[in-house]
Amino acid sequence: MEYIKIKFGNDFDTLNSSFKETVEKMFRTLNTGFSLCDRTWSPPMDIYETPDEIIIRAEIAGVSKEDIEVEINNKAVRIYGRRCEMPRQDNATYRLAEIQYGAFERILFLPSPIDKEIVSASYLNGFLQIRLARLPMNIVHKIHISDQ
Fold first, then answer.
1. Which CATH architecture has domain 39-85+102-134?
2. 134-to-47, 95, 103, 121, 130 alpha-carbon distances in Å
3. Which tens digit of pLDDT belongs to each residue from 63-85?
């Protein structure tokens, strides 16, 4: 059985990543040849909840499972990796080239707390699916009050 790498972390540096992406998109709109570094793309994703789980589904066709990584912390899930560019035909004139290649990244903030011990991921037919067990919200913790 092969496994998808899942890492647990504390911080994904979202501010720096978002700012860099916004600036790069702005300049790319003005000049399509401009790039600050390796161009990143964002795969489309669905996130939905059941009473017991949060399910994330990412469409990343053409990406090898070995090129996908998932990191989870208490607040978010980060999915990142790389799609290798297909060789271009030398004598062809491209009329449309919409498929994005290179590094990709998505950070999804979770709608409710999860149990980081109960996480699974699968990859089939170009779709990555991550299942996260929700923590029960009705658990009551009694706090002992001391006399000091």
1. Sandwich (2.60)
2. 13, 46, 30, 15, 13
3. 999 999 999 987 899 999 999 98
